Amino acid sequence: MYRILLSLLFTFFTLSVSAQRMIDTFHLYFDLNVAALNKNTEKKIDLLIYNDKIINGSTVMVVGYADFLGSEQYNKNLSMQRAKNVKDYLIKYGINAADVKVCVGKGEVKRRDTTDKEGNPVDRKVDIVVNNKFNFSEQPRHYPTTASKPPKETTTAGSGSNKPSDIKELNTLKEGQTILLKNVYFPAGSHMIKPESFNTLEKLYATLKDNPRLKISIEGHVCCIHGDVPDALDIDTNELLLSVNRAKAILRYLVNKGIDEERLQFAGFGKQHPIVAYERSEEDAEKNRRVEIRILSN
pTM of the prediction? Predict the structure, then answer.
């Protein structure tokens, strides 16, 4: 078993002549005797995926550990379950299962001092080791800040809340037309996509996969901001780019599913293009808080 693991580690860390690789290790910490991910751990993984620290095509190792409390077999099982839960979460949020080359629990981290009855919190962890490939001949992709003006809509496909919202209609729309992306949800002030949105995003992915010539722009809009502020605050990044980051999050989801990034653009418009100019109710705010898909070519 150890020889196999050593062989995998050697393969994992071998550098290719044709590509420069960057190896990063990210630490996720767990509560005592707990294998389940908590909210902080989930948020950290979300940010790693969102910020392209873990991308499809990378080689990923997930290694679980435990502290010295408990028996050897208990700690082995606990560390393995921690690693498995992290792997499952990565796959659930778009990382290819085939990219996770190693998922292992190594049990107790050996320490000389094992007298503390509270154990050692820093050893209750999972390490995600990521080997990313970078091609330096590629030009970096520049992402937008909050935009001020959307592309001109060439023909009318409805307006405001009357826009079409059936994703199956995407391949029937003309260049410049937009469709309202319904049932996509984010926590207040956050760009993290809620799990109940995945049904809609899977339909969007399937439509793009079935129509390989279709190119789209993902456009975010927010509500409830006033004055000269261009966009709402994203509490995850502490940036005034909430509409931009929500649109980008959807783009990253589609790219992680396998859609070519060259077919996708994204933009955020803050509250510069509200459906309801003066929000007087939650219903008004909901109309302004939206994501739209614009046809670039079809």
Answer: 0.58
